[in-house]
Automatic annotation (TrEMBL):
It comes from the Bacteria. InterPro entries: Cys_synth, Cys_Synth/Cystath_Beta-Synth, CysM, P-phosphate_BS, TrpB-like_PALP, TrpB-like_PALP_sf. This is Cysteine synthase. It comes from Neolewinella maritima. It is an enzyme of class 2 (transferase). Pfam families: PALP. One of its GO terms (molecular function) is cysteine synthase activity. It catalyses: O-acetyl-L-serine + hydrogen sulfide = L-cysteine + acetate. Pathway: Amino-acid biosynthesis; L-cysteine biosynthesis; L-cysteine from L-serine: step 2/2. Its EC number is 2.5.1.47. Keywords: Amino-acid biosynthesis, Cysteine biosynthesis, Pyridoxal phosphate, Transferase. Residues 6-281 form the Tryptophan synthase beta chain-like PALP domain.
Amino acid sequence: MNSLLDLIGNTPLVDISTLQANPTIRLYGKLEGQNPGGSVKDRAALSMVRGALERGVIGNGTRIVEATSGNTGIAIAMIAATYRVPVTLIMPENSTEERIKTMRAYGAEVILTPADRTIEYSRELAQEMEDSGEYVQLNQFSNDDNWRAHYGSTGPEIWRDTSGQVTHFVSSMGTTGTITGTGRYLHEQSDQVQIVGVQPTDGSSIPGIRRWSPEFLPAIYDPTQVDRVIDVSEAEAVATMHRLATECGVFAGTSSGGATAAALRLAEGLDEALIVCIICDRGDRYLSTL
């Protein structure tokens, strides 16, 4: 009998090759919405919470504080609830209603910050609260347990499920844990695998994908593991999100649309390939924005 936490990972690959016309291009989406918390962030959250418990930095009533744009907060709230660890989550006030309510449903306290100050201010406030001595940050942006989760699970799963035939891996970049950990593992298996990151075009706002100011660039980001970066507009991400739903039956969020849009653009310049992109969450937490 599995516990809830045993169900994190081992998500399926689904064939979405019909989104493009080249029969020699195989395109697969890794359905991270199948995780119990509904997103790829379950992996990192589990790794970070367990790591903090093992090191003794949380427990015995210590409260976690974390800045989040949504999915990491939901995952932390779910996992912390199973360990009876109290959580305060800080996020911009323009986050979707579904995300806020889901975090609160798991028992987390949610603090909303001004939308115009972005998640960068949420991160500053989380740091101030930790500095007060009353909270402990997991700090997904600088916590090596974040990328290690993907090095130990996401990367090996992709290599296994494609029988080592993957040629390109595409991932949106937020905290950069997914691309750093998965990229490192896949590069170790073959230096022919290309790792492709996705970021928003200037002026675009895509939940889960960031173009960080230099001072806020995640400390865990390893640019040597990223072979190419593709910029995607908000309109392109939204349009591809709709295509995933209406043409493939895959209802995912905007960042998944962005990653898939980048994968399709990548495919246009290739003759033959097996591309895997991260479908990082489910679309039901974005319904209020559609």
